[in-house]
């Protein structure tokens, strides 16, 4: 029996798809799963798991949060970067924040479920908290001293031009970070108001914080994966005095451990130097 | 500075492999005899490898194969929760299944789901990764058919789709993937069938370390310019991209085939210099774009990057900013769409570059196969424009570019802008833009990015937008489907009409298509066409944001 050509073509297509599925979808990956059982490769194929005293404590490639049940940092551990994966470092829901570079206006609400922080406020509050934890200056450009984004909604008489008629500090419900702007008294924001929709021009205020803040960039930003296993050498160095104090070690001893767990750029020019936080914290626990 | 070394080393590596690897692909596509494995496949599929196909039959074979693939993958996704290695994931709903099936068959790999929570291992391996291979094979096969159109002399036929697909898969894609998988496993990528391991962290919390056949999928994800990550965060995930040098290798694999295919073009039309001209156009556009993307990202801009001191939001420590930006440019200059950092959090102009790259039509160097045929269409338009200027009948490689050829080329070019602009307008008209996370110009960028990515079969995203609603899944699925198959049929029709012609001998007045002047003209035509089409939309989105 001869099939019509349109049907025979689809039949050939189906047969081709099945052949390729067996070859490329089963044989090829499963051969490598089998290869992953070979001693030497098996540890990596299984996820570079680290076992201490017969207990699996994590993967050297996957970061962890070193915080207590309330989310406060545990002082004897080096802290990881902020994470947007689930409640933090959750490999079952990896994610970045996806907030844009001009995400500067918080949604203020009396109901915590409706409120949300802009990326700028998240950065400011993290910087302030880390500054406090490490005993250094946590100030940053475009941040208020109480750790939110220093952003005004400025109302002009003619929309975008003319004299200023009203100024609101959009991220603060308490005392504004600036008393006057262009001669006009700055008001605090009211929860639930959308000042942009009312015609206010969103104006971030640089302030007088140093251009190179003490708290490094990676400490105040969420990573891409939410599982970043590393921190920058600068952020590690910032944490050394606290770790030494908490653990009764000399700073030199802690610094030596940090150096042991710092990987340089591959071949001298690929990527950035990075400190593996889990391996470093394990080494600290074992140093005692 | 080290960021530029990263880029330069990639350029040097690609220059080094252009001839040897291009020649290898030429021999793989035009071999002296069939391998035994290939003969077995032809028997199992039931095709005669010696049969030649007209452009119509070639196109119908491509469409039949893709239609069967979409249907098969859709059903696979719908029942995956009942199959082996399902890991207890729930059933995937109809609209996400439709979107995902279209997405992987069209080489887009747009992901409306999160891999670690929505898919079992079997469907990843035997469903999605199979399409990673064969959708790449389809793209290359169509490009080869177009080259045969230029090279043919008064012939009706363009080769045999099933033979092209088999040879490309077995001789080009699979061997490189085998090598790359091995290297990736040595670097620390996972490759297992485990449902994951629960560990107790140093602070006593529980963490679920995920498993999966990741390394084998990662290789074809990059090599086939597919881009669909095993996990939600794609090549940012330490299991998908564990080291600074796997990051380099992934970018190299993304560029490898698209940048070497012009060599195949040169060899098949019998003039290697024609291949050099095409690859020069690709290189000029790509290097300019990478330099701009890296420059914009490193030098900041936007309030938050200024407050932070650098654009580290959404980037991994080990990659840093320049290498992340290079990846972003690579993934959007090709039709890959994998990401190692999140474009949504890029500086305003840094985040505009991936959109611009996709709007260029992904021809510099573009997806595997689709980049070459896209650029050959632009070269054809350039020849026509040049012919108009001097008042001669335009010819490209001895083939007259007449009314029929120009109609096909123009229609090809119009498909993508129509899909992007109509799609984005429809999202706003129906209020579906409200699922964007950000507001104002950045919200427009998110919508624009989604349709640009889908219509160009890229698959990367400004991740802030929620797209797994029925409206978005359906609309983006249609954009992907039409954005892939309309151009593909137009290319094959053009190939058929070129093949039929008898080449006219070169004369005094023929525009040489292998010299810097022509390269410059193609670059110009590409940029002008894109600028005229998309500038208004860009001005309302990223440009407005960057200047405010």
Automatic annotation (TrEMBL), chain A:
Stored PANTHER family: POTASSIUM-TRANSPORTING ATPASE C CHAIN, POTASSIUM-TRANSPORTING ATPASE KDPC SUBUNIT
Quaternary structure per UniProt?
Answer: The system is composed of three essential subunits: KdpA, KdpB and KdpC.
Compositionally biased, Polar residues: which spans?
A: 91-111
**Could you give a GO molecular-function term held by this entry?**
ATP binding
Point out the signal peptide segment: none
Source species, domain of life = Bacteria
The protein's topology relative to the membrane is:
Single-pass membrane protein
Q: What does this protein do?
A: Part of the high-affinity ATP-driven potassium transport (or Kdp) system, which catalyzes the hydrolysis of ATP coupled with the electrogenic transport of potassium into the cytoplasm. This subunit acts as a catalytic chaperone that increases the ATP-binding affinity of the ATP-hydrolyzing subunit KdpB by the formation of a transient KdpB/KdpC/ATP ternary complex.
The segment annotated Disordered runs over 85-111
Its recorded name reads: Potassium-transporting ATPase KdpC subunit
Pfam (any one) = KdpC
Q: Would you name any one GO CC term?
A: plasma membrane
Q: Where does it live in the cell?
A: Cell membrane
Keywords of the record, alphabetical order, are:
ATP-binding, Cell membrane, Ion transport, Membrane, Nucleotide-binding, Potassium, Potassium transport, Transmembrane, Transmembrane helix, Transport
Q: Where are the transmembrane segments?
A: 12-35
Q: Which family does it belong to?
A: Belongs to the KdpC family.
UniProtKB/TrEMBL annotation, chain B:
Show the NCBIfam families listed in the entry: kdpA (TIGR00680)
Give the family per the record. Belongs to the KdpA family.
Choose one Gene Ontology CC annotation of this protein and give it: plasma membrane
Functional summary from the UniProt entry: Part of the high-affinity ATP-driven potassium transport (or Kdp) system, which catalyzes the hydrolysis of ATP coupled with the electrogenic transport of potassium into the cytoplasm. This subunit binds the extracellular potassium ions and delivers the ions to the membrane domain of KdpB through an intramembrane tunnel.
Question: Which gene does this sequence derive from?
Answer: kdpA
Q: Which organism is it from?
A: Paractinoplanes tereljensis
Extract one GO molecular function annotation from the record. potassium ion binding
Keyword list (alphabetical) reads:
Cell membrane, Ion transport, Membrane, Potassium, Potassium transport, Transmembrane, Transmembrane helix, Transport
Report whether Transport shows up as a keyword of the record.
yes
Q: What is this protein called?
A: Potassium-transporting ATPase potassium-binding subunit
Membrane spanning segments where? 6-26, 57-77, 133-151, 172-190, 248-265, 277-296, 372-390, 411-429, 475-496, 517-539
Q: Output the Pfam families linked to this UniProt entry.
A: KdpA
Q: How does it sit in the membrane?
A: Multi-pass membrane protein
Quaternary structure and partners: The system is composed of three essential subunits: KdpA, KdpB and KdpC.
Q: Which PANTHER family match?
A: POTASSIUM-TRANSPORTING ATPASE A CHAIN, POTASSIUM-TRANSPORTING ATPASE POTASSIUM-BINDING SUBUNIT
